[in-house]
Amino acid sequence: MKALQLLLALLPLASSFSHPGLLVAESDLARLRGKISARLDPWQACWSSFVNMAPANLPYTPQAVSSVDRDAVGSTDSNAYLLWTDAAAAFTLALRWKIEGNTSYADAAATILNSWSDKLTSIGSNDDQYLVAGLQGHELANAGELLRDYTPFRENGLAKFQTMMVDVFLAKNIYFLEHLDGSEHNVKHFFANWELAQVASAMAIGVLTDNTTTFNFAVDYFKNGSGNGAINNAVTNIVQEPDTGNPLGQGQEEGRDQGHSALDFALLGVIAQQAWNQGEDLFSYNNSRILLGAEYFARYNLGYEVPFEPYTNGLVSYTEISSGSRGDTRWAWEVLYNHYVMIKGKQAPWTTKYLNKTYETYGGFEPGSGSFGSHKVSGYYDTLGWGTLLYHLNETDVASLRESTTSTSATHRSVDTLAALIKVPEATKSISGSSSFLSESTPTVPASTATSTATSTAASTAASTAASTAASTAASTVNLHPGQHAHGHQHSHHAGPQKAASCPLPPKKQ
Ligand SMILES: *[C@@H]1O[C@H](CO)[C@@H](O)[C@H](O)[C@H]1NC(C)=O
Ligand SMILES: *[C@@H]1O[C@H](CO)[C@@H](O)[C@H](O)[C@H]1NC(C)=O
Ligand SMILES: *[C@@H]1O[C@H](CO)[C@@H](O)[C@H](O)[C@H]1NC(C)=O
Ligand SMILES: *[C@@H]1O[C@H](CO)[C@@H](O)[C@H](O)[C@H]1NC(C)=O
Ligand SMILES: *[C@@H]1O[C@H](CO)[C@@H](O)[C@H](O)[C@H]1NC(C)=O
Ligand SMILES: *[C@@H]1O[C@H](CO)[C@@H](O)[C@H](O)[C@H]1NC(C)=O
Predict the structure, then answer these.
(1) Where is the Alginate lyase domain (predicted)?
(2) What is the pLDDT of residues 10-69, one digit of tens each?
(3) What pTM, to 2 d.p., does this model score?
(4) Considering the chain, what is the average pLDDT of its residues?
(5) Alpha carbons 28 and 235: distance in angstroms, whole number
(6) Is it the case that residue 453 has pLDDT exceeding 80?
């Protein structure tokens, strides 16, 4: 109570944002520097993979163009990979600079961002432009956020970069979430991943540009939006786990396939972590609805059955869960596991096991974009990843985070948020067995399901330097194994055909 009063007294400061304050906070950087210098796993194993991949190394040549598109236009091939590989590289190089202190990496990251700010005006001509707006929007904003205190960039680049992010990306994020596109006369037309990407991007650009209106717009949409990017629509039903009766959250895309459902949880982790670093606790929102959904996904994708409530948005209907791409692993689980289990002290048995599966798949850590898979397959670049570097905590780390919670709360924005954060230490309890991850360092596994075989086979060869080779050779020769196919078509479809009879606007392509 005393702490709350103290914090309330500091509320006049509440309009300021913490920087860096999106996927990475200063405390994450400090912790990681310590882990790397002490050569502790799993951080060290992850760091080796990170610094050995091509985009973490110089020279890096930016590929900026004036117009990108996820689709071929006339005789012009799709070229959005130029943007998503550069976004991943800019984030990577900025993070490497933050950890190692070598300004060559900051300069290279700045060069990438500046070259896009100088050129980019268009991100596509059909619906897929919104995927670029959301997915690459949040990635670029995160790169810029990490670099914003690098003086040469702050003085010559940041303002121009912010303008591009607002004009080219945020404008689309908001247009889409306000359902102004013709297809969106049914506000549930687009699957959750489309809208979650816009929420992640709008929130990130709000912080990047110190714009409270934009940040609050994204938070409000998450809590109370009318489309599938609002959490109560992204996780449609609360069902009971067989045997235990525990609540589980059925995801909006569970009847569609598991690859897109995995993307939803990757994006929900991004959204909640970005908000958390600004003092807004979306992880706990509505009985930790994100976690209920993650537990449902993880249980099913580990090979266990889950209840399924019929789903329809009036355009597509599902009566059973889809086994398509079941067992899909994306880089999504470190942030969820460490937040809910380590920081909050919650039970999250399926999420815990899914992180374990992730470690087994990728060689003892959760990797990120640029280290794995073809650079032309969007699914490897939808979110930035590197959760082991950024979020993995041991018990000592958790204790020091709790200590710092009160002192950093001055930047937090609302009474509700302050109260939520103050409760964190009370809710926390010690978790045994979490250190089992620390000893994981060998790739083991081929996943048990057919659809993830391609991913894990690739993973066993990928460990560190092999990954960049794979990325550079994969381009046009890539063979779409089932797992990769799921990635490649991650979000190229929305919720199905419009019925002309009920639709006053011309039908759009699926
Ligand atoms: C910084 O990084 C560059 C590029 O890898 C390297 O050539 C240079 O030696 C590094 N500088 C220091 C001081 O380590
Ligand atoms: C903040 O962003 C909103 C859109 O979210 C925009 O209307 C407003 O002009 C921005 N404010 C500033 C100061 O740029
Ligand atoms: C949710 O939005 C509706 C209108 O769309 C509004 O009436 C209501 O107050 C909002 N609730 C919250 C919690 O923001
Ligand atoms: C929480 O979810 C339930 C449905 O499961 C919904 O009725 C309720 O309005 C939600 N509450 C908030 C605060 O979003
Ligand atoms: C992770 O999997 C390994 C076997 O691969 C097992 O020994 C370990 O107990 C598992 N850890 C957790 C937390 O499930
Ligand atoms: C956690 O890691 C730190 C280094 O970051 C180390 O000093 C500490 O002993 C570790 N704590 C536990 C419980 O392993």
Answers:
(1) 76-300
(2) 544 445 999 999 999 999 999 999 999 999 999 999 999 999 999 999 999 999 999 999
(3) 0.84
(4) 82
(5) 29
(6) no
CB atoms within 10 A of CB 472: 11
State how far the Cα of 465 lies from the Cα of 193, in Å rounded to an integer: 31
Say how far apart CA 153 and CA 109 lie, in whole Å: 9
The number of the ligand nearest the C-alpha atom of 213 reads: 2
DSSP 92-136: HHHHHHHHH--HHHHHHHHHHHHHHHHH--B--SSTTHHHIIIII
CA of 35 to the centre of ligand 6 (A): 8
| For the CA of 230, the nearest ligand | 4
Radius of gyration of the chain (CA): 21
Q: Give me the CATH number covering residue 117.
A: 1.50.10.100
- Cβ atoms of 251 and 261 within 8 Å: the answer is yes
Amino acid identity of residue 419, one-letter, is A
Q: How many other C-beta atoms are found inside a 10 Å radius of the C-beta of residue 346?
A: 19
Q: Is 436 in the pocket of ligand 5 (CB under 6 A)?
A: yes
Q: Which two tokens stand for residue 428?
A: 């926390």
For ligand 3, whether the C-beta of 224 sits within 6 Å is: yes
User: pLDDT category, 432, cuts 50, 70, 90?
Assistant: very low
What separation in angstroms does the CA of 130 have from each of 137, 190, 226, 338, 470? Answer: 10, 11, 17, 30, 28
DSSP state, residue 251: E
CA 69 to chain centre: 21
- How far apart CA 90 and CA 56 sit, in angstroms, is 9
What percentage of the chain reaches a pLDDT higher than 70?
Answer: 76
Give how far Cα 60 sits from Cα of 85, 88, 453, Å.
11, 12, 32
Q: What is the mean pLDDT of residues 466-490?
A: 28
**Angle, vertex CA 384, rays to CA 493 and CA 486, nearest 5:** 35
Of 107-121, 239-253, 484-498, least confident by mean pLDDT is: 484-498
372 Rama sector, left if φ>0, alpha if ψ -120 to 50, beta otherwise: beta
Please report, for the chain, how many H helices and E strands are present, in that order.
23, 4
**Averaged pLDDT, 350-362:** 97
Identify whether the C-beta of residue 331 lies closer than 8 Å to the C-beta of residue 381. Answer: no
287 lines ligand 3 (CB under 6 A): no
pLDDT of residue 409: 45
Q: Which residues line ligand 4 (CB under 6 A)?
A: 232, 238, 286
Query: Which residues share a beta bridge with 311?
Result: 318
Nearest CA to ligand 6 atom 10: 396
Domain range spanning residue 401?
A: 2-509
* Pair of tokens at residue 326: 């079941």
- From 97, 104, 107, give the residue whose CB has the most ligand 1 atoms within 8 Å, as the site to mutate: 104
Q: Residue 508 corresponds to which tokens in the numbers above?
A: 């759009």
Residue 441 has pLDDT above 60, yes or no: no
Query: Among all ligands shown, which has an atom nearest to the Cα of 282?
Result: 4
Q: 264: closest CA among 241, 287, 240, 292? A: 292
For the chain, the domain total comes to 1
